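Predict structure. Chain length: 162.
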Amino acid sequence: MTQPATQRIELSIGGMTCASCAMRIEKKLNRMDGVTASVNYATEKATVRYPGTITPGDLVATVERTGYTAALPAPPEAGNETPRDELDTLRTRLWVSAVLTVPVVVLAMVPAWQFDFWQWASLVTVRAPDARSTSTPVTPGTAPTSSVTAATQCAQVIPVTV
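Prediction complete.
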């Protein structure tokens, strides 16, 4: 006897407030004939494998009868290239960050290469790839936009004595 071909779908689940809710949905889906479900509370998604005799609408109806909301995944948009563009941007940022991290680590770890005020050079190197930030000058009575901005706008170095 041959088993019917199984299909896979990822449902968006709403209304879960705890891990017990996820388990309840998972149990209800797994009680259906031929269905294997795994519900993730953190991502609010259910990954379901089901036979051809069951429709995605049946799965959604079962989740809704359990007391939660479920939605089928949105169809992919044609011509949408943003995930690839975003991946390229992230890969470029990774390489730039890695290249600029090497001098900072070397200066921090090799005392023979440390020169006067090497910390400031490291700070400038760390600050360089963050071109997207909109750092504005700090005026009296306002806070800087980030800790790196605050450090770069510091007027003096306070010596530490032991």
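Summary: The chain has two domains: 6-71, 103-162.
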